[in-house]
């Protein structure tokens, strides 16, 4: 995920550069494609040309409803296997630029790094999506919230909390159909892409939001995926937002729960107590994520570019100035345009990134062998992944394992690409 932080100690991106970049974007309708091609050309020497039997290109596959999915495709001359890569929220195929080439060479496979609908170079438009904007009111004593940073830096725990009957029933109304509709919008687009490209089966590598959608894709189309790599997938943990909670089947009065430290429990609040009320309000208003970037023009460019530079220079593996500049510009150009996906995530997750239908409640239908990867400093709860792996390994017909990338955060594939690439390739052998 990509967040804008307005108070930053990042190296400042100059006003002259910001104005130039903003003007380039508004005056050039193909600025996103130009930024994409520049980044890919730097990352892949065989981009748009063949070297030693390998060729990379950007391919657009038409879908129904006048939509299309764009991908970075790395084709090996005689490869028969396929690896599909799904990015996270506010990201796109270019975020894998330190991984695509390695996976293609090491596995002798054709790699397809997709832009999900509404992201990157894929169609920005989409169908109208149903919604339930009711905000679940979780009532607790603010003065008794403890930051359990020894367990996880994002874990905040009050003693207990209460859900009011009337609000809870309103929150639950039609939520199943809303979530399923939104998830299927993405899942069915991926399936249409697969069929249109005549791919029988592939291995899937998916990050964050892509990981959440990837699990649902595997469940709906189990024959299409051979093996599954989940990099810090979103929506694994249970919480009061889970509409699958058995306690919600027969609601008779208010519900009070003691808070749990375990993401396997429905009384797990995670980072929710630390989310600012203003951010929660904007989330439930469905304010498009990048609307401020569009409205603030060069001001937003300067803030966003400075934030990107600060964020990605934390890693010793991401220090080349030209590479960093190309990537930061790519992130700006491919995110600033309006998109159906800006608010779609708000229908399936709460503002604290808790899923309304958590992955932990869908595992019995997940049959693909899986690898779950988290960063050492990941803001996602790796204990949720550990609980999922433990559950999967108790089931017949499947297996799972969990790995931690040293020095990595949520985007561990960028923070420590060498270790991430090695783990993925070893798993997919």
TrEMBL record:
Pfam family membership, one: Abhydrolase_1
InterPro entries per UniProt: AB_hydrolase_1, AB_hydrolase_fold
Positions of transmembrane segments: none
Signal sequence region: none
Chain ranges of the AB hydrolase-1 domain: 81-248
Protein name (record): AB hydrolase-1 domain-containing protein
Organism: Ogataea haglerorum
